[in-house]
Amino acid sequence: MLTPELPFERAARERLGEPLFRYMQGLPADAFGDENDANHLALRRFRLLPRVLQGNESIDTHITLMNQTWAAPIGVGAFAGDRIFHEEGLLPIARACKRLQLPLVISEETVTPLAQIGAEYDRCWLQLRAAGEVARIKALIDQAAESHFKAIVLTVLAPVHPVAGLQPGGFSVGDALKQRGWHTIGGTQPGVEPLPAFPVWRWQQIDEVATHCADRGLPLLLKGVLHHDDAAPAAAHGVSGLIASNIGLRQSARWVTPVDQLPDLQAVTRLPLLLDGGIRSGSDAVVARCLGATLSLSVRPVITALVTGGETAVFDLLSGWINAISAISHWCGVSDMGALNGSFVTEARD
Question: FMN hydroxy acid dehydrogenase domain spans which residues (predicted)?
């Protein structure tokens, strides 16, 4: 099954060149066929069931997550090396998210300084890699608090490749940054901060990070949680939410898809669940919401829009998704996002 081409995708391929474009797509070394987009294919299995004669006169797409209110159950996920894709980095995305009041996750592998991002949009979340010394993480959390960020995302399935050439598409963001003499938020030298490739942390380190976040008034979300045994104890360790994610299948095409794991995660935790992976439309976000995701994060379509049309294209893409969420939810016969549940979805039989 071939996945449909994203808006602006052909132009983005031409502008970025094949290696960087393939990196953006997230094609891992062991991918086969079209499974590099298995996350989206998993979402496409589901169809929405409209409800009629409900008499709804209005629809409210706002959601509340960790005491923060957002315009819709959609946000923009983190990506590395932002200035490689656009001369302003992710600032055009920040401006679009501010206009729309949507969350924006900032990677520690971003080139644009935290203070500059925070001055542009003070409702961002900072994503850090759960690797290396905890002191490194704490220092970055302090920077996020000083820049008025609103949450910390800790990637526990760290996207670091232990073998050369396993980077998505064979493209190394670290090498590209070194060539340009750029360093990231999380590093002091050109390139990406070198960290251990495998998730060697334990709950003891999570406890330290969660305590530090709490002292700074920042909720902590764990990203890369797919196994129910990892989700079950999270709340007891000071975690405020979980992001079901296989890191865009960048490490391996064999990881399970996050949408398929939502039921297992829901069964063992009452923490808010977010979905990261495969979201490419407003209807995808509605399906995810029905399946238990409080909010969904999307990256690839937003980068594609950024590359080809800057802030205007990003704003148009995301506002179009909000409009689709509003219309589809209204057609499902609900007046707010909290009413969406599993009764509104069914798996396709084709």
Answer: 1-350
Residue type, 90: L
pLDDT, tens digit (0-9, with 9 covering 90-100), for 250-270: 667 788 999 999 999 999 999
Q: Is residue 350 part of a domain?
A: no
Q: Is residue 54 part of a domain?
A: no
The structure tokens 């000083």 sit at: 146
Number of Cα atoms under 13 Å in the Cβ half of residue 206: 26
For residue 278, give the CATH number of its domain: 3.20.20.70
The two three-digit tokens of residue 25, written as one number: 């797509």
DSSP state of 193: P
3-class SS letters over 260-322: HHHHHHHCCCCCCEEEECCCCCHHHHHHHHHCCCCEEEECHHHHHHHHHHHHHHHHHHHHHHH
Range of the domain at 255: 9-44+61-341
For the segment 303-326, what is each residue's pLDDT rounded down to a tens digit? 999 999 999 999 999 999 999 999
Please determine, for residue 5, whether its predicted confidence score (pLDDT) is greater than 60. no
152 and 213 Cβ atoms separated by less than 8 Å: yes
Alpha helix (H) residue ranges in the chain: 9-16, 18-25, 38-44, 82-85, 91-100, 114-120, 134-146, 173-180, 203-215, 228-231, 258-266, 282-290, 300-331
**What is d(CA 73, CA 3) in angstroms, rounded to the nearest whole number?**
23
pLDDT band at 28; cut points 50, 70, 90: very low
Rounded CA gap, 256 and 249, in Å?
9
Q: How far apart are CA 16 and CA 11, in angstroms?
A: 9
Closest CA to 253 of 23, 68, 49, 33: 33
